[in-house]
Amino acid sequence: MLAMEKEFDSKLKIQGNNSNNSSNGGNVQRSKSFAFRAPQESFTIQDFELGKIYGVGSYSKVVRAKKKDTGMVYALKIMDKKFITKENKTAYVKLERIVLDQLDHPGIVRLYFTFQDTFSLYMALESCEGGELFDQITRKGRLSEDEARFYAAEVVDALEYIHNLGLIHRDIKPENLLLTNEGHIKIADFGSVKPMQDSSITVLPNAASDDKACTFVGTAAYVPPEVLNSSPATFGNDLWALGCTLYQMLSGTSPFKDASEWLTFQRILARDIRFPEHFSDKAKDLIDRLLDIEPTRRPGAGPDGYDALKMHPFFTGTDWQNLRKQIPPKLALEQVVHSGDADDSQESSWNPSHVGDGALRQVEGNSGPASSSESSAHITRLASIDSFDSKWQQFLDPGESVLMISTVKKIRKLTNKKVQLILTNKPKLIYVDPSKLVVKGNIIWSNNPNDLNIQVASPSSFKICTPKKVMSFEDAKQRAWQWKKAIEGLQSR
User: Fold this and answer.
1) If you write DSSP's letter for every residue of 319-377 in order, what string do you get?
2) The dihedral of CA 169, 173, 175, 181: what is its sign?
3) Beta bridge partner(s), residue 273
4) Rounded mean pLDDT of 6-25?
5) In whole angstroms, what is the distance from residue 296 CA to residue 234 CA?
6) Which residues are identified as catalytic?
7) C-alpha dihedral sign at 300, 302, 308, 312
8) pLDDT > 90 fraction of the chain, expressed in percent and rounded
9) pLDDT tens digit string along 405-431?
């Protein structure tokens, strides 16, 4: 384990070998060293009380974390070192850390400090207790035009700052637009950020994303047509995503949503937009302009810059100088369902022993056969690399991707069988025999909760119910509530 940590640290090292020049001839500010505003601390995960899980990515989780000695609450992004190394994501992680360190805007989440242990990297980010904008859209069904105007204006304000620095976010969507307790917008998740060649952001030589900037990144429903056609990234990419997000705020669904990712891409390429009747003419016109096939014609990307976007009739009456002083829309609170089970109050909270060196000590404490508790500690280590093993790819169609995956026990009356439960964006929900690598069950998908619903009994136990069958599962990672949220979130899109 020590050798693994040293190997990773050498790859993560933030010292560069080049001075202020770029290997590809660009003008991005390069530096031999970097003085971080957000320090690299020597904390351990045991210094924090971990709460509910805010979100899950391919190699990371974001968890509510309270520092025990100060009581300060953070959104702790926990990243799996082994997976980052295996998937060659080290440069992206370094770039996100360096970029976040230099951003200073009320509409962007702040990075406070970082630390690491044997298994994981940690970034302590500003905690946005109001949740995701996506959740507000889901709870309200759709937003009023006044609410959408308020949120869109705050996104525009933050995007103007980001673009003026020469950065492209590349993953603007309602899930990455977080809300403060008061209800103001903050842009999060800079894992796909791309510095342009004339960026004023300092980037280390060994911390850069794809230089061609035409690699497919982002989320299918918000990806612009030029990216699907492998054109280089531009500021217009974010403005297209803004148009999709504004459409979703006003309608409750993304403009190009279809039965599969492939069909979604076809609608994007065909620019197949259908406006609901309740959209105002001003809203339709702005969205229509933001979803222009030609990136430079999108308001904010042309020669008139952001003035063309801010002066659009949709934003009439917006006080651009005092956005953060305005009263935000009232937040719709999450409905709490009480089932009478005491464990439900824990929802998706974590114990510090589930991640980092706490798990390492438990597993390495016994060199003999692993006990059930030791196996559980190993399984619950963040983003177990087994979950992302290429062997599961054989169960996916071209273009299909895994949204959630876990080794779970399928509970029967007399026996329990370990299976790999897989949820994809198709959407598809299957369980696979992990030893024989054969599909043991295909749960018929339905967007109708009457035909497919999830009942959570405890943090580790849940049932998937269909009209013909009720299947019980036990997830050692205690992700029952995450399974429920993932499936219901896919049903609502």
Assistant:
1) -GGGGGGSPPPPPPPPPPPP-S-GGGGGTTB--GGGSHHHHHHHHHT--SSPPHHHHHH
2) positive
3) none
4) 46
5) 9
6) 171
7) negative
8) 52
9) 888 999 886 778 899 999 988 899 999
Closest CA to 250 of 224, 281, 221: 281
Q: Tell me if residue 65 falls in helix, strand or coil.
A: strand
Q: How many Cβ atoms from other residues are within 10 Å of residue 169's Cβ?
A: 27
Place 88 in a pLDDT band, splitting at 50, 70 and 90: confident
Predicted confidence (pLDDT) per residue in 130-169, tens digit: 999 999 999 999 999 999 999 999 999 999 999 999 999 9
Amino acid at the residue 459: P
pLDDT band of 28, cuts 50, 70, 90: low
Domains of the chain, first to last: 2-126 (3.30.200.20), 137-325 (1.10.510.10), 389-491 (2.30.29.30)
Calpha distance 330→101 (Å, rounded): 31
- How many angstroms separate the CA atoms of 477 and 133, rounded? 27
SS3 312: coil
- 339 neighbors 325 (Cβ within 8 angstroms): no
